[in-house]
Amino acid sequence: MIELKGSEKLQVLKKADLQVKTGLNALDLVLSWFSQLYEPRIPTSVWIRCQLILAEGFTNAVRHAHQGQPPDLPVDIEVAVCTECIEIKIWDSGATFDLEQKIKEMSKKIDPESSGGRGLKLMKDITDSLSYTRTAQARNCLSMVKNYTPVPNTEDEDDILQLPEELCG
Question: Which element (helix H / strand E) includes 30?
Answer without folding.
Answer: helix 27-35
